[in-house]
Structures
1.
Amino acid sequence: MASDTGLLHMVYFWMREDGEPGDADKLAAGCKKHLRSIPGVLWLEVGFPAKKTRDVVDNTYGVALLMEFNDNDAQEKYQEHPDHLKFIAECSHLWSRVQVYDTVVSQS
């Protein structure tokens, strides 16, 4: 993580069942291309599920997007940024479901 405080924005994408091989890679590339340089994004990583088999691990998603912002205001500005909207327009056909977890990082 880039700092000790802030807001973590974790987005999990489930790929379309009728999708093409390589769609997860296309989605990951789209995340990096469109979202990394948006003002307010402190840190961005894109990954794929680890193939863990423990009962508490959910590895049914196809792509994970992990980001950090200074605060909720920065994350809200990101939501309306033209590059974020372009990402959605260009890549939303690749996923069937999105789940978002926003977490305020403790300042302790």
Note: The domain at 6-51+59-102 is CATH 3.30.70.100 (Alpha-Beta Plaits).
2.
Amino acid sequence: MFRMGIIEESLENREILKMFEKYFISQRIEHVPEDEYPTWHTNEYHIPEEEIQELLDTLKEQIKTTWYIHTFNDKTLFVVLRGRWFEMALKKDESWNDMIEYGVKNAKVERRYLENISLHI
């Protein structure tokens, strides 16, 4: 089972969240006054391993530039960026390098966020 957090404001089209309804666990509302979107709605989902890659393929087309989505289980971390997703080790190692470089150059995510992805939702 993978735990996934999706900030609704990170998506081009929130309608795709209908695909995730059966996996929904909870929603947290966060106030981020300095952000372009001052209120974030972070949804937590628990997704079976056999369904994760199909959902990642959908998310990579719907996530906005400058954002990322992450999902993890006890062995693997996936990071979704605009146009691509990456499978990596849970703790930062060389498997993170391609994701960080792609994220900075192509998805326009600030390096500091990609170098410190936490394992919580």
Note: The longest helix spans residues 52-62.
3.
Amino acid sequence: MAETNDKLDLAKTDKTYYGAGKTAQIVELDEIGYVSVTGQGSPEGELFASSIEAMYTVAYAVKGRCKAAGEDFTVPKLEGLWWVEDMSVDPLSVPREQWLWKLLIRMPEFAGEPLVNDARSQAAMKKQELARIADVQYTTLKEGTSVQMLHVGPFSTEPETLSVMYRFIEDQGLAINGLHHEIYLSDFRKTEPSKLRTILRYPVRPV
């Protein structure tokens, strides 16, 4: 019997999660598992870069174990939750070195916490120079009812898209009920800023 080369690609199978358009929309999201790492500092900083490397190292270790078990998958896009200590102020008024973030890479349902923990230990032994691997954890997120929209262009122009989302949320009789969530459809380390594609999302609740 011929072997199949099929592998799960969540970006293709979960159109709700990855399919935001250029207008704001309401979506319903179930609980989802991720590998994650938390930190503080500018996204241009060394800690942020090393955290991304550690995350992908663990994610690909998970992929390797799943592939060996006959359940291969495409490692999904990088994501991030962003906030500041004092949420009553405009985050953009806070120095970037004080920004708080939680980086995420989504995991398929068959890659749960025990597998992620084993893969992290394996990755830590192979990449001992990457100290942040020890901080990578399995986490779940249930955003439920959310509003999302695709932002095209540099991160510096995100406020323009966010203003559209804020108006939509208010017009729908909703209020923000969670952290600012970004899904990086483009690799911002390699893509020209004007061509970046980023999904912006907020969990919401009725006012």
Note: The beta strands are 25-29, 32-40, 78-83, 100-106, 137-141, 144-152, 174-176, 180-184, 197-206.
4.
Amino acid sequence: MATKIKPLGTRVLVKRIEPDEQKSEGGIFLPDTAKEKPQEAEVLALGNGKNEEGEIVEFSVKVGDKVLISKYGGTEVKIDGQECLILSESDILGVIEE
């Protein structure tokens, strides 16, 4: 990504991880309009870690982590043609360990 965005506070910039192909249990391929938004994402950038009181808060995630995010959390932004999300660290449900 050529454009750099540094989230503020305890916000995190993530990119959703799209599954290779999605089909129903019956084998029917689903169109984009019928698909749910993926809840898996990759962490691209972290904020400065300061909360509203100005105290430094250590992040539970790091750049490159694969995480599980809430379905409707965050704000969608487009960076160099790619859709990303800026969300609060509290919208991250967990880290996916492989």
Note: Strands lie at 11-16, 40-46, 66-69, 75-79, 82-88, 92-95.
